Amino acid sequence: MAALDKLTGKTIWTSEAFKDTSSLSSPILIKLPARQIIVACSRHFLFALDCKSGEPLWKYELTGFEAEGDHCNTPVFYKGSIYFVSGDRNGQGTFRLNLSDDGSSIKEVWTNPQIKNVFGGFVMLDDHLITTIRGNSLKSMELTKGSVTDSLKVSNGGLIYGDSKFFCYGNNGDLSLVTYDKGTFAVSSKFKIEKGTLQHFAHPVVVNGIMYIRHGNELMAYKVK
Hints:
Helix content is about 0%, strand content about 50%. It is mostly beta strands.
């Protein structure tokens, strides 16, 4: 990893970190009273560096390596813990790590190997983690033990939350709008994205009551009611 001056491009520091290969996951910045840390994901580790010096602080091994797989989800820091959803078939799946006050160490709280996706993303809402998983289901998990509290059959794919509903854009082109009331899912609308070509991998975006969907070279806009 490297840190650059954003105005001049001058290198501030470089770090070999743990000498692992890269993944497609985006790093996050966590601001703590003692320091600021960067949490990032490589091919085999979730790890942290000191933001000022690039010094490696800790690493957490991601098991179940797949030659054709990768980690694309962004980790989330929520109420003192780091949450991550991995996609390797024999890996940890979704897990929670408690972060020490100074950011120098972590402690595994739980793992749930049944809840996994590669790049669908996940949403933190009302002390629950919500994500779509392999096997084509939308799952809600409570954060204390990582147990599933509700499940709904939808196509696995990109997930966002807005206008008090979930937008599930499946890898098969199905678009499902899902309400979430008192911890219970219900499908309010469902249709197929017909325009465009190749994979349905782009996440939907909702702005000012309009949902935008990109599929290949086609961009579509839908009014959300």
